[in-house]
Amino acid sequence: MSIISVFFSRTFLKFLSAGLINMLISTIIMFALYNIAGCGYWFSSAAAYIAGAALNFFLNKYFTFKIKEWEARMIIFFALVIAASYIIAYGIAKPAVSFLLQNYDSKIRGNISLLAGMCLFTPLNYLGQRFIVFRRNNDR
C-alpha cells in the first residue's frame, strides 16, 4: 500500500467528511475562546479538541471505518493518537509561525498558528486512526 493510495482513497474522503463536521464545531470553540473569551493558545486549542473528540470517535468508528465491535483498546488508542497528533501539530505550528511571522502582531501569529496546527493535525490524526485505532487485518 503506497502513501498515495492511503490519502487518495474512499476512506480518506469519508474521514475528511466526518472531519468537516468536527472541524466546524472545534473551530468555532477554538477561535471564540481565543478571540472573544481571551483564553490562551494552548487552552483554546485543547478545549476545542477535547470537545470534538467524542464526536470524532463515533463518526470515525461507525461512518469512516465501519467498525462495529467494541474494544477498550480503541478508546485508549484513540485518546493517545488524538493527544500525540495534537502535541506534534500544535507544538510545531506555534514556534514555526512565530519564527516566520515574528514582525506581526501576537494575535495574528496566534490565529495563524492555530490554523497551521489544524492543517498539521489532520494527516497525523488520519494515519493514527486508520493504522492504529481502527485498523483491520488488511491494513497490517
What brief labels describe this structure?
140 residues; mainly alpha; 81% helix; globular
Would you kindly provide a written description of the structure presented here, covering whatever features stand out?
The protein has 140 residues and is mainly α. It has one domain (3-139). It is 81% helix and 0% strand. The chain has five helices and no strands. Helix 2 (10-36) runs antiparallel to helix 3 and helix 3 (41-64) packs across helix 4 (72-100). The chain is globular.
Short description:
With 140 residues, this protein is mostly helical. The protein has helices at residues 3-7, 10-36, 41-64, 72-100, 106-133.
How would you classify the helix and strand content by structural class?
A: mainly alpha
What Rg, in angstroms, do the CA atoms define? 16 Å
> What amount of the residues lies in strands?
under 5%
How many independent structural domains? 1
Q: What's the mean pLDDT score?
A: 89
Runs with pLDDT <50, length 5+? none
- Secondary structure: number of strands: 0
Identify the overall geometry: globular
> How many H/I helices?
5
Helix content: over 70%
Main sheet makeup: none
| N- to C-terminal distance | 10 Å
Q: How do the helices and strands follow one another from N- to C-terminus? A: HHHHH
